[in-house]
């Protein structure tokens, strides 16, 4: 089985210069948790997940030196101002850029399984030779395929 046989072809993506507010609206409207990020030539530039957004908002871990500092560390909250500041930032500020895991359309399912299981990813962008995103393949696509095999539909 090839990647192109299982992948989702209608890919929802964002651009690296989109705001995080726009990204969040896209994730909510489409009921998804991650998207590929494209550059100005519509080539894959990164990948962003709902976890990346949460990490951008969460307070940085503090080193506790004494009892007074410990009290301050416990009382840290996410402020509305911090969230508003985040919403105005660009997607490229929080997206994963390095060591992106991708798969080509013509690869066998084994290649996808190795990447998904080794890195514990839920989905991968499927790219062509020029790094254009042509699809997405997810664990659920593969599980659905295995299920169809198991009940004899394929």
From TrEMBL:
Pfam families: CBS. PANTHER family: CBS DOMAIN-CONTAINING PROTEIN, CBS DOMAIN-CONTAINING PROTEIN CBSX3, MITOCHONDRIAL. Residues 7-64, 95-154 form the CBS domain. Gene3D superfamilies: CBS-domain. It comes from the Bacteria. The keyword Protein transport does not apply. This is Signal transduction protein. PROSITE patterns: CBS. Keywords: CBS domain. It comes from Sporolactobacillus putidus. Transmembrane segments: none annotated. InterPro entries: CBS_dom, CBS_dom_sf, Diverse_CBS-Domain.
């Amino acid at each position: 089985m090839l990647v192109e046989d299982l992948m989702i072809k209608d890919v929802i993506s964002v651009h690296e210069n989109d705001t995080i507010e726009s990204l969040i609206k896209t994730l909510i409207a489409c009921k998804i948790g991650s998207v590929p990020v494209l550059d100005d030539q519509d080539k894959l530039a990164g990948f962003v997940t709902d976890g990346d957004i949460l990490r951008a908002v969460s307070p940085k871990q503090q080193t506790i030196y004494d009892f007074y500092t410990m009290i301050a560390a416990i009382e840290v909250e996410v402020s509305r101002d911090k969230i508003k500041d985040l919403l105005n930032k660009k997607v490229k500020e929080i997206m994963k850029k390095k060591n992106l895991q991708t798969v080509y359309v013509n690869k066998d399912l084994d290649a996808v399984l190795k990447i998904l299981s080794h890195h514990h990813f839920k989905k991968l962008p499927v790219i062509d030779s020029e790094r254009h995103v042509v699809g997405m393949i997810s664990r659920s696509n593969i599980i659905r395929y295995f299920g169809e095999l198991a009940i004899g539909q394929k």
